[in-house]
Amino acid sequence: MKKLAILILIILIGIALLSYITYSWNDLSDSSIAISQILAMSMLILSGIYNLLDDYRIMKYLGVLQIALAIFMGYIVYTKLT
């Protein structure tokens, strides 16, 4: 049940990310780029959690890698905004 809820959230955030990128196609402001990076970061975090809940060892490693990449993206967003 938890995995299904996380999968639905991943899909919804992916749809939100695609629609926001389509909406702000020619907007190169810092806030627009930061919002799209935050949406991508949240999608990576949720897919990392989804993979951590899997039984296979390789999927757990992939989940840790996705969460580490999301933390790195968060650091980039934070340094870009300050």
Please tag this protein with its features:
mainly alpha; 82 residues
Give an account of the 3D structure:
- It contains 3 helices and no strands.
- The chain is an all-alpha fold and 82 residues long.
- The protein has one domain (2-81).
- Helix 1 (2-23) packs antiparallel against helix 2 (30-52) and helix 2 (30-52) packs antiparallel against helix 3 (57-81).
Helix content: over 70%
Number of domains: 1
Structural class: mainly alpha
Major sheet: none
Shape estimate: flat
Count every beta strand, where a strand is a DSSP E run of 2 or more residues.
0
Task: Note poorly predicted spans.
Answer: none
Counted by DSSP, the helix tally is 3
* Gap between N and C termini: 39 Å
Please sum up the structure shown.
Helices cover 85% and strands 0% of the residues. The protein is an all-alpha fold and 82 residues long. The protein has one domain.
Blueprint of the fold:
Layout: H1 2-23, H2 30-52, H3 57-81
Helix pairs in contact: 1-2, 2-3
